[in-house]
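Support reply, case 0932

Customer input (verbatim):
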Amino acid sequence: MIRNTSGFSLMEMMVVVAIVAITSAIAIPNLIGRLPAYRLSSASSDVLSVLQNARLRAVKEFANVVVDFDVPNNKYKVFLDNGRGGGTAYNGEQDGTELTLMEKTVPNGVTIHSAGFSSQQRIEFNSQGGLYRSKNSYMGGNVELKSSAGETKKIIVNIAGLSRIEV
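Our regenerated output:
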């Protein structure tokens, strides 16, 4: 009698299933524990990218671009401050029909802990990519994000309009 020996036996299959189950039981809690740090890192990279893109857009449009942080609601929006549609240009406020470039909410598990730019919660880039002069002072500032685990990351913008993440 010829026997076909290709394939897996039931015993071999059960051993593999047991190994996968044990490995998963060890790995999944570690992955879940890293989730707040991952969300914080992702959110801070997003904010950094938005600030850098706002700076580039200000140069491209030859107009001021504002990034306005709504700290209590964990949101931020970017708009052109060019006075379009009856608005007032260069006032840091979105009025008239000034164009909204984007609006975003930070992910669940992350909050905007603070946003400070010369006593305001917004930053305005001028047409040269630097910070717009606000009340006779050029000031940089920062946005601090906080995870549900209590970790924080700070995105710093200097006077020249350059942004970086401080851990």
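We compared this against your earlier run and they match. Two observations from our side: The chain has one helix and eight strands. The beta strands are 65-70, 75-80, 100-105, 110-117, 122-125, 141-147, 152-157, 163-166. Please reopen the case if you see a mismatch on your end.
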